[in-house]
């Protein structure tokens, strides 16, 4: 009895092991179904068309439709299911348009796949996003005596950012930013050959590109002077005589100028910063040279420029005074 039971158990175990190999399950009609996750129809660069690709294990009737999942409306038909697909693979593209040529609205759509081969059927769906809106990052640019500090905070989607100073021939490598992430870049005020640029307003270009290929660019101003200085006094009133204290010691000759303040560095590239000269320049030792803010001129409306030579110039704003 015991021997017979052991034999029976052995046969059962053998059957459990062998039967799956003796009676294999045929593969499904579709063995691979992939699609572009998101694209930007009509984009000049990046992903302007969506691609849908499938792999078949046998000839079958294939239907591929794009639907608005909220309404169930079919907005495009990539394969109508009438003709038998005999190729092993099928790849089709969608330009984001309806049959009447109108572009669909931005949003998420469903790619519905149905296949039939005899009595066998297959159905599956993928999600695709149409996005034609360029990203809108938040950008800050801060001037330092010798360059610029740039910060970018990404919108609610991953993106790639490139920083550049075209006038200096400088461009950074693309940097990825996660959704709501940030990236920073520091420029040392030198050109592509490592030479300091001339003092003045420089424009920093910030280009942000999302995963769909939508691109947004903006230029921001930055002051590069290669000279660190502060006004003395720092909060003057109109009619006051103002000098400068230079960082680094010494008492070099300095030229002081007053210019109309039209804006501040860090703004848009087309926003002016410096206006006309207000008074005649004065030159002398940094420790004793002073320039007078004319009566009736608010210090907040004035830039003080201090120059120790053609390659070193500081742009100084005044605090609130009387």
CATH-defined architecture of the largest domain? Sandwich
* Helix and strand run: HEEEEEEEEEEEEEEEEEEEEEEEE
User: Can you tell me the overall shape?
Assistant: rod-shaped
Helix/sheet category: mainly beta
The whole-angstrom Rg is 34 Å
* Low-pLDDT ranges: 8-21
**What's the quaternary structure here?**
single chain
- Largest beta sheet: strand ordering: 2-8-7-4-5
The total strand number stands at 24
Indicate the proportion of strand residues.
over 45%
Q: Distance between the terminal alpha carbons, to the nearest Å?
A: 113 Å
How much helix is in the residues?
under 10%
State the helix count. Answer: 1
CATH class of the largest domain: Mainly Beta
What's the number of structural domains? 3
Reported for the largest beta sheet, the result is: 5 strands, mixed
Whole-number mean pLDDT: 90
In CATH, the topology of the largest domain is named Immunoglobulin-like
Give a structural overview.
It is a single chain. This protein starts with a helix and ends in a 5-residue tail after the last strand. It folds into three domains: 103 residues, Sandwich (Immunoglobulin-like); 87 residues, Immunoglobulin-like, CATH 2.60.40.10; 89 residues. The strands form six sheets. It has a five-stranded mixed beta sheet with strand order 2-8-7-4-5, with no helix packed on it. Strands 11, 12, 13, 15 and 16 form a five-stranded antiparallel beta sheet that branches. Strands 19, 20, 21, 23 and 24 form a five-stranded antiparallel beta sheet that branches. The protein contains one helix and 24 strands. Helices cover 7% and strands 49% of the residues.
């Amino acid at each position: 009895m015991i021997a017979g039971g052991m034999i029976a158990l052995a046969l059962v175990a053998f059957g459990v092991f062998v039967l799956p190999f003796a009676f294999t399950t045929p593969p499904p009609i579709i063995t691979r179904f992939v699609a572009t996750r998101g694209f930007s129809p009509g984009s000049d660069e990046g992903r302007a068309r969506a691609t849908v690709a499938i792999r078949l294990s046998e000839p079958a009737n294939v239907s591929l439709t794009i639907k608005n999942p909220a309404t169930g409306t079919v907005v495009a038909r990539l394969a109508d299911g009438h003709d038998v697909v005999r190729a092993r693979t099928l790849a089709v593209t969608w330009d984001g348009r309806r049959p009447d040529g109108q572009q669909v609205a931005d949003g998420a759509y469903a790619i519905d796949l149905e296949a039939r081969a005899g009595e066998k059927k297959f159905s599956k769906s993928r999600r695709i996003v149409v996005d034609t809106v360029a990203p809108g990052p938040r950008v800050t640019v801060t001037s330092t005596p010798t360059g610029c500090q740039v910060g970018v905070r990404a919108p609610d989607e991953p993106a790639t950012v490139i920083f550049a100073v075209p006038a200096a021939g400088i461009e950074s490598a693309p940097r990825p930013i996660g959704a709501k992430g940030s990236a920073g870049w520091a420029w040392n005020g030198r050109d592509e050959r490592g030479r300091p640029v001339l003092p003045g307003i420089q424009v920093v270009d910030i280009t942000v590109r999302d995963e769909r290929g939508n691109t947004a660019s903006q230029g921001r101003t930055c002051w590069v002077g290669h000279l660190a200085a502060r006004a003395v006094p720092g909060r003057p009133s109109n009619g006051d005589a103002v000098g400068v204290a230079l960082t680094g010691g010494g008492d070099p000759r300095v030229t002081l100028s007053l210019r109309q303040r039209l804006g501040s560095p860090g703004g848009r590239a087309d926003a002016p910063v410096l206006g006309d000269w207000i008074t005649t320049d004065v030159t002398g030792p940094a420790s004793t040279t002073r320039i007078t803010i004319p009566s009736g001129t608010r210090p907040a409306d004035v830039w003080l420029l201090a120059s120790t030579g053609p390659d070193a110039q500081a742009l100084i704003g005044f605090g609130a005074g009387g």
